[in-house]
Predict the 3D structure of the following.
Amino acid sequence: MGSTPTPPHDDHVRLSLPVVEEGFSFNRHVMAYVHQAAERGLYDIRGLGAKRKLPTFDDLSFLTASASRYPLEGYREKCASKTVLGTRFAKKPIELETPITVAGMSFGALSANAKEAIGRAASAVGTSTTTGDGGMTPEERQSSKTLVYQCLPSRYGFDPDDLRKANAIEVVIGQGAKPGGGGMLLGQKISARVAVMRTLPEGIDQRSACRHPDWTGPDDLTIKIEELREITDWQVPIYVKVGATRVKDDVKLAVKAGADVVVVDGMQGGTAATQQVFIEHTGIPTLAAVRLAAEALEELDMVGQVQLIISGGVRTGADAAKALALGADAVAVGQGVLMALGCNRPAYLRDGHAVDVAADYAALGTAAGYCHHCHTSKCPVGVTTQDPILETRLTPDVGARWLKNYLQVMTMELTTLARACGKSNVHHLEREDLVALTVEAAAMAKVPLAGTDWIPGTRGF
Amino acid sequence: MGRVTPASGSVAAPSAPAVTLDFPALGVRKINAYLHAEATRADHPRVAIANPGGAHNLAVGLNAPIDVEIMGHAGYYAAGMNKLASVTVHGNVERGVAENMMSGTVRVKGNASEAAGASMRGGLLVIEGNASGRCAISLKGGDVVVGGDVGHLSAFMAQAGRLVVCGSAGPGLGDSLYEAVLYVRGELHGLGADAREEPLTADDVASLTALLAKAGFGHSPREFKKVASGRTLYHWNSDAHQEY
C-alpha cells in the first residue's frame, strides 16, 4: 500500500511501475479537510456552489426535428422568447424579452460596479435582475429596468419605499447552496457603506438569520404575502423562493400561501459565502428539482397561473432550454453572471489591455479557474469585493458589455434549440423533446433513457 | 405588572372629527387603499377603523403623517412597515405588530403576540400590556417600550435601537445581540449568548428618562437594568463552540 514493491532479486533493475495509491475514502481532498479542521477549529467557508459531480442538464439531449417533425428556419423564422411572470394576482405582471433572468446577488457580496453592470446588461436584453441580501442600492434601481426586491430573513436594509419602487417582490425562504441556513458576509466585506446599509458595525463577521423574524410556516406566510400585497396595493408580483429539498411539498405550500411565482433553487446554486458542508451536502440537484416543481403545479392545476423559475447551476442556453422543456417558465442565473463579469478570468481589462492577476489568485491559495474565494473580498478581478482598489478592476462599461453578450448568447442558444425542435415559442418546448443520457438523469428528469422508452420509477422498474 | 384589559370591539368616538371606516363593510383592501391615498390628502387626517375583529394587515404600509385608531383587536402585522403615521390599537395584536417600522408611532393598548416590532428600523412602538416571545427580534433602530413582560428570546439578534421592558424578560434575552441596548425593570430570566448586564451610565439615565416620558410611563430609569452585547461573537472564533 502506497510504497514501491521490493524487487524479488537485488539486481538493481526496476521491472515494475512505481505504485502510488491514493485512498478513495481518505483522498487528498479529505485529508486537507481534516488537516484544516484540526488546525483551525472552524468549518470552512467559501463562495460559489457545489463542486462535486452531480447529475446536470448536460445529462439530457434534445430530440430535434427531422422527418416526423419539421424544424423552423434558424435565422429566418421567428421564435418568441417573451416571458410574462406574475399573472395570478398582480395588477402589473412582469414582462420580459427572455426567460433568462438574473438571480439575487447582494451589494456587499458584489461590488457596486458589478451590481451596476448587471442592471445595465439585464435592462439591455430586456430581463430582470434581483437585489439580494442587504437592501436595494439607488445605482441598481436606476440601472435596472425590471428589479426584483428580495425580502429575506435578515431584512437588512429592508425599506417600504424600496418595496414600492420594486417591480416584483421575492420572499426568500431558502437558497439552493444552503437550504435551511442563513447568509454570511465576513468582516472583510462589511465596508462602511455595507455596514450602514445593514445596520451593523463595520468589519464584523455577519451571520444572517435562517428564518424570517415575523413568520413561521406556510399559514403565517399566507398572511405575510398579503401584507406585502397590501403595502404595494396589489400592484406587483410576489415570488416565493425555496432551496430545493422537499420540492413538491414546498412548491405546493408556496402556491397555497398565495405566490404568483415560485423560484426553486437547486443544489448547484451559488452563494457569496457559506459553510462548505452546506454547499456540498444539502438539497437535491436542479435537474431533479425542476420536474418535482412542475409536477407540483400540475397536480394543483396551476400551470399557467403560477409561474416557475428554476435556478441553481443554469449556465447555458441549452440548460435554459432543458429547464423550460421540463416545465419551467424562466430560469435565473447567478454564477454564470459572475463569470461573464470576469470571475475566474486570469486577467482583468484596463484601457483595453489584459492585466494578469495570477499572483493575486496565488495569494489566495488558488488560481484562475479554481477560485471560490468570494468570501474574502479579495476577488482578483473586482467582481465579489468591497475593496476600493480591487473593485476598480471591473468597470460597469466592460461588465455590462460582457454580461449583455452572455445573456444574449444564452437566449440565442435557447431559441436555436427551440426552432430545431419545431417550436415558434421557447415556452412550447416540452418534455417529449428530451431524452436522458444516464439512468440517473432519466429517473430525475422523468424523461426516457435515450434509445429506450424507459423512465425509471414510472414505467416498469 | 397587571394584565391590561383590552377594549371591546365597539367603537369609541375619537376626540377629534374623524372618518370612521367599518371593517366588516369594507374589508382590509379598501381600508388600506384609503389610508394610502385619500387619507393622506386631508388637512388633518384622522381615521378610525371600527369593528376590526382581529383582522390581519390593518394599516400596513402607511406613508404619511396620519392618525389611525383601530377600535378593537388587530391580527398579524398591524401597522406593519409604518412610516410617519401614528397608529393606536385599542385592543390586543397578533404577531409582528409594527414590523419593519421606519418612523412614526404605534401604540397597543392591550397585549402583543410574538415578534412585536420585528426588524423595526425607526419610530416608537409602545405596548401597554405584555409582549410575547421574540419581541424586538432583529431590531435595527427605533424604540420598543413594553409596559409589562416580554417572552423568551426577545431582542434576538437585535442590531440597533432600544428595547425597554417595564416588567420582566423571559429566558434568552438579547441572544446574539449586536449594538441594540435593552433595559429591564423586573427580573431577567436568563440572558442569551453574548448578552451581558452593564451598569447604567448617566447618558442611559437621561435618554431612558426621556423615552419613558414619551411612552407614557412614570418609572424611574434607575429601577432598570441595562443589557448590551459582550461583542465576543463579532468575529469567528474557534473557542466560541456552539455559541454561533
Observations:
- The mean pLDDT of chain A is 93.
- Residues 184 and 207 of chain A are 5 Å apart (CA to CA).
- The interface with chain B takes residues 40-42, 154-155, 158-161, 163-164, 186-187, 198-201, 204-205, 207, 209, 213-215, 220, 223-224, 226-227, 230-234 of chain A (CB under 8 Å).
